[in-house]
Amino acid sequence: MSTAERQAELALPSVAERRRKKRSGFADNWWRHLVALIGVVIALFPVAYIVSAAFNGDNSLSGSSLIPRQLTLDNFRSLFGTQRHTTGHATFQNAHYLSWFGNSMIVAGGTALLTVLLSALAAYAFSRFRFRGRRMGMLTLLLIQMFPQLLAVVAIYLIVLNTGDVFRFIGLNTLPALIIVYLGGAMGVNTWLMKGFFDTIPSELDESARVDGATPAQVFWGVVLPLAAPVLAVIALISFISTLNEFVIASVILETQQKFTLPVGLWQFIDQKYSEHWGPFAAGVLIAAIPAALLFAFLQRYIVEGLTQGAVKG
Amino acid sequence: MSAGTRALSLPTRLISAFSGTVGLVIKIVLLSLVNAFAIWAAVVLSDHHKWRALGLLAFVTAAIDAIYLTRRWTLPLKFLIPGTIFLLAFQVIPVAYTINVAFTNYSTGHILSRSEAIANIEQNSLTEAGNGASYAMTLMRSDKHQLVLALLDNSGHAFIGTPDGLRPIPRDQVTIAGGTIASAQGYTPLKGTELGSIDTELSSYKVPVGGGKAIEPQGFDSAVVLEPTYRFDARKDAFVRVKDGVLFKDNGRGSFVAANGAEIEPGWKTYVGMRNFGRIIHSPLIRSPFLKVFLWTMVFATSVVFLSFALGLLLAITLNKPGLSFQRTYRALLIIPYAVPAFLALLVWQGLLNDDFGVVNRAFHTSIPWLFDPNWARVSVILVSVWLTVPYFFLVSLGALQSIPSELIEAAEVDGGGAWQVFRKITLPLLLVAVAPLMIASFAFNFNNFNNIYLLTGGGPALNNSPVAGATDILISYTYKIAFAAGKGQDYGLASAIAILIFITVGTISAISFSRTKALENLA
């Protein structure tokens, strides 16, 4: 995700801050409703279609329609394997959807948490300490980040390949390998955003804690992090979603169906058995969209509250 | 400071939890874990004889210990080290490696090192000798269980062939039956079932017989003498074609080439200076698709940003009316495309735009080849990207609109400005102050928006005059294909060179963007 999108997330509160005035009549505003409705229809059209296709009895692409002909959960059943009573991997013989989903959650969740930790530590150093190389360090972070990690994928592949010869658990086709590769991009923009937020936390708070005998580590964990909770949540969500979306590196490092993440798995799934698997695919998309959408909905409220409350304003 | 005092109450409690002994214990435990892991890793590494990696591990571990056990001056490092380790391993080193590769000819046919390539050519150039010498062969195992070839030539001489060479054996030590050696002293012939398990061993089995020649098994019961068509002349540092003595010299770019331009495969990986960059400019096979792709990348990124901004702003202006009913509902619904992970939306759109069964064509009763005609595919890619990006500019514009003081607008209206005039002269300029940097950032993002292209069209449909570039390929997907496209030859050197060009382009754009924001001023 770009810097711009991250900043948009932070821009949300001003939307909520607006004042409600007296409602105007429909006569003056009909065009506003018209434009908004057209926008909503276009925005929701694919979403509505996927929801419908997921519950539609006819699971082919050509048989899909906006209103399902017959409601059924068959698509979800076939996604999770038709024989529901068998145990183990035999259940998921059609596709390894559950594995993909689980893998994506592990990788995106793990990356998000560790990204927040690593970039918060670095941002704290950049925000609170004055040391030689500080300015250079931040500019270097920015510069390195502009080189798309995607284009260095040959080198990343070779590093993981060679590491795997010695340490199997972080070799090719493992989830930990993917997580630590993503952590290479943990600093950079995230550190910049967090440093900006940390700078707004008054340093008097640190200083009074230091006077009370707290060490810098205690100030970090005890004072700065709790106050920075909103920005930590935003960074975690952004990191979660961009990791969830990542396709190239995952497709290079992960090799077998059981280890795929959702983008790699679903891409192969639809590439190979496109028209006849539209129904199960739609069901899969629906489930895959839930975690990110929930987090997004949750974040919106959290950010608005977090930023509008007095705590961080000093 | 009243808010600050209130905020302190929780932190002070947390501080006491982390203070003194507890904090020290946590630190010691974490540091011990790091060291324990390092020791385990060191043992594994030494088992694998990875001495350089072991040295690096020892250095890094010692540095970590030193930094966390020293009291004062390493303070910033204590916070910077964890992220920096990952940054170095998976960002800095890969980028450095990629830059290095951009100055080499690393590609299909130029993967090996020079000495490996020479050995490879010598091996591959073996062909059946002109005199057609062949042997009847029996596979046997020696006392030490080593696989050997028991060979009988046309004039009835018996030999034992091993990877070390050919050794004659006296007639009285062998029995011959049916034109092959049935048994030999000190060796056990292989039985039927055993033959199946030695396939791979046999396929690379060679018995050197001097002069670069070798005896190679053909199936399970005969062997032929092979001689090299090329011979490496170490003194001239060149290959000699045996039949006519033509010299193939090192051309300095990783290949042995004859005076008439003929080349021996494979070549090797070597530094070629700026040659990859030169190819982008001079080679017509690369220049023409590169320019097309570059142009399309600009068109794609520009139109996505401007269309998205225009539509987002339109929606924002529409909804920026105090007291408008359903305002919250509209806003919540309009940003839904933003809340759905993009890869899902892209895969879904691929289905919706399918020309035969796709919903879009059926809804409008059209049969537009959305993804299979070059121009329609370009339109589709832009439309879908706009669909994904509008909610972002809608949110940004709405926020920016609401931060414009209403007094300004009212004053302009009092002065007799029409709605359009007020928008042009007051609202838009103020809005752009906030949104322009974001537009530049969005441009940089879409310039490298691999997923939007690759998950929708795969860069296709193919253009008939280029084997690699498709109609909708942007630079980054084009580069990805150059590096990884199976079957068309992979050219990491060229891909890395283009990667550097992308880096420079995006870097310049971002530098302009940043010089216009105040982000850098906070660094003082």
Could you walk me through the main structural features you see in this protein, from its secondary elements to its overall organization?
The complex is a heterodimer of chains A (314) and B (524). By secondary structure, chain A is an all-alpha fold. Chain A has 14 helices and no strands. Chain B contains 19 helices and 16 strands. Chain B has 524 residues and is an alpha+beta fold. Chain B has helices spanning 2-18, 20-47, 51-69, 75-102, 114-124, 192-196, 199-203, 275-282, 284-319, 327-334, 336-339, 342-352, 359-363, 374-403, 406-414, 419-447, 450-454, 475-484, 492-515, and strands at 126-128, 134-142, 147-152, 158-162, 165-168, 174-177, 180-184, 187-189, 207-210, 213-218, 222-228, 230-233, 238-241, 247-250, 256-258, 263-264. Chain B is elongated. Chain B has 3 domains: 17-102; 126-228, Periplasmic binding protein-like II, CATH 2.40.430; 281-523, Orthogonal Bundle (MetI-like fold). In chain B, strand 10 and strand 11 (222-228) form a beta hairpin. In chain B, helix 9 packs antiparallel against helix 16 and helix 14 packs across helix 16 (419-447). The chains are: A mainly alpha (314), B alpha+beta (524). At the A-B interface, helix 1, helix 2, helix 4, helix 5 and helix 6 of A face helix 1, helix 2, helix 4, helix 9 and helix 10 of B.
